């Protein structure tokens, strides 16, 4: 039998490990997204780097809990959409002739914009820490979207990031100004 | 109540009686709802809820395992294992659920695993000695009582969490889930019906014999 104070320490450790395992389990969608990105984009370096950062980020946020975990979950859900739209658009709609810089920026930027608006709406449901939620969820969603945008190269990544930033930054600034 | 054989009725009653006697003051509604709240906070990642959950749950766990195992020393060990399991899984706790029932389900499963392991070890080593001290001197009575108690425990371990919740609440004698009396009665009835089905599945229908 373990002494009471040691048991408390072990219990605390078990709790933290349990949370970490649970966080990793919640981050599982990142793995297929990275695999698809790797397979479609033929850019192993960026795909694995973004995938690893995203997996670690989502696991860490889910482990931390509270608003961070909620934001990670919302960001991941929105991010799956942000990932799918450019991939589907590139493969099933645009042929090589139509894949111009303008079209690419419209798709990626528009996708980022849409995701940012969705997350802004989602954040209004919260009573507190809306901006923290929006910031974290946007970062997760943008990273997810970037996995799909690797198809389009650096301009695609920049388009997605700009879209998310353009739709969420005004909301955060407005809230801070009116708070 | 139970329509199982007479011996099982006695066993179930014994478990209930011992549980309520040994626990002393049962957990009141305020403590119970506080535990539910703290457990939900802990599941959300609120670390400051760790100590309240740990402090409230530990004595309840020890008492509960002591009742189902009938051995205080085993109970402390089992309760430690159960506590570690509960806290490792607390992130998956359903906020609408009852923290005590959820924890006791894990404790029962932990105890069943222990029994299974202990049983296997005893089989391989040829140790057939009984682990628990008994009240009755007659060897037959001891064997029958122990067998029936194990059988009842096995059936309880097979119950669904919601069924187990009402059975545990009935064992607590008054500390029930937030339900109307009729709804609770119906759920208890359903839980007992399910336990009868599980009993028949494993041990057959003794009423005809």
How are the secondary structure elements laid out?
The complex is a heterodimer of chains A (179) and B (209).
Chain A: H1 4-26, H2 30-41, H3 44-64, H4 66-93, H5 101-123, H6 130-149, H7 154-178
Chain B: H1 6-23, H2 29-44, H3 50-69, H4 72-89, H5 99-125, H6 139-158, H7 161-172, H8 181-203
Helix pairs in contact in B: 1-3, 1-6, 2-3, 3-4, 3-5, 4-5, 5-6, 5-7, 7-8
Question: In words, what does this structure look like?
Answer:
The complex is a heterodimer of chains A (179) and B (209). Chain A has one domain (4-178). The radius of gyration of chain A is 19 Å and the shape is flat. Chain A has helices spanning 4-26, 30-41, 44-64, 66-93, 101-123, 130-149, 154-178. The longest helix of chain A has 28 residues, at 66-93. Chain A is mainly alpha-helical and 179 residues long. In chain A, α1 (4-26) crosses α3 (44-64). Chain A has 7 helices and no strands. In chain A, 85% of the residues lie in helices and 0% in strands. Chain B has helices spanning 6-23, 29-44, 50-69, 72-89, 99-125, 139-158, 161-172, 181-203. In chain B, α3 packs across α4 (72-89), α5 (99-125) crosses α7 and α7 (161-172) crosses α8 (181-203). Chain B is globular and about 50 Å long. Chain B is mainly α. Chain B has one domain (6-123, 130-203). Chain B starts with 5 loop residues before the first helix and ends in a 6-residue tail after the last helix. Helices cover 74% and strands 0% of the residues of chain B. Chain B contains 8 helices and no strands. The A-B interface holds A 1-2, 7-8, 10-12, 14-15, 17-19, 21-22, 63-66, 68-69 and B 42, 44-46, 50, 54, 73, 76-77, 80, 83-85, 87-92.
């Amino acid at each position: 039998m373990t002494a009471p104070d040691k048991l408390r320490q072990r219990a605390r450790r078990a709790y933290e490990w349990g949370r970490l395992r649970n966080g990793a389990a919640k981050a599982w969608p990142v793995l297929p997204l990275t695999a698809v990105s790797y397979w479609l984009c033929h850019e192993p370096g960026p795909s694995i780097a973004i995938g690893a950062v995203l997996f670690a980020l989502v696991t860490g946020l889910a482990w931390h809990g509270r608003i961070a975990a909620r934001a990670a979950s919302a960001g991941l859900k929105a991010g799956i959409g942000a990932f799918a739209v450019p991939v589907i658009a590139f493969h099933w709609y645009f042929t090589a002739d139509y894949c111009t810089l303008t079209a690419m920026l419209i798709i990626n930027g528009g996708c980022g914009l849409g995701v940012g608006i969705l997350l802004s709406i989602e954040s209004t449901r919260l009573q507190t820490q809306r901006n923290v939620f929006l910031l974290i969820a946007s970062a997760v969603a943008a990273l997810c979207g970037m996995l799909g945008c690797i198809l389009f190269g650096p301009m695609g990544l920049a388009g997605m990031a700009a879209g998310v930033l353009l739709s969420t930054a005004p909301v955060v600034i407005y809230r801070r100004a009116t708070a | 109540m139970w329509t199982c054989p007479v011996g099982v009725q006695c066993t179930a009653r014994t478990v209930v009686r011992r549980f309520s006697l040994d626990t002393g003051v049962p957990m009141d509604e305020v403590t119970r709802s506080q535990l539910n709240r703290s457990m939900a906070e802990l599941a959300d990642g609120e670390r400051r809820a760790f100590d309240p959950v740990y402090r409230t749950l530990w004595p309840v766990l020890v008492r509960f395992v002591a009742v189902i195992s009938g051995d205080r020393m085993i109970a402390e060990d089992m309760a430690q294992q159960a506590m570690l399991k509960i806290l490792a899984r607390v992130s998956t706790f359903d906020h609408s659920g009852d923290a005590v029932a959820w924890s006791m389900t894990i404790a029962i499963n932990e105890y069943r695993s222990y029994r299974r392991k202990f049983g296997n070890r005893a089989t391989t080593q040829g140790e057939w000695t009984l682990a628990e001290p008994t009240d009755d001197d007659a060897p037959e009575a001891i064997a029958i009582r122990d067998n029936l108690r194990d059988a009842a425990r096995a059936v309880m371990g097979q119950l669904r969490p919601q069924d187990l919740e009402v059975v545990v609440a009935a064992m607590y004698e008054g500390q029930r889930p937030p339900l109307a009396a009729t709804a609770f009665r119906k759920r208890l009835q359903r839980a007992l019906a399910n336990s009868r089905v599980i009993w028949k599945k494993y041990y057959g229908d003794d009423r005809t014999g």
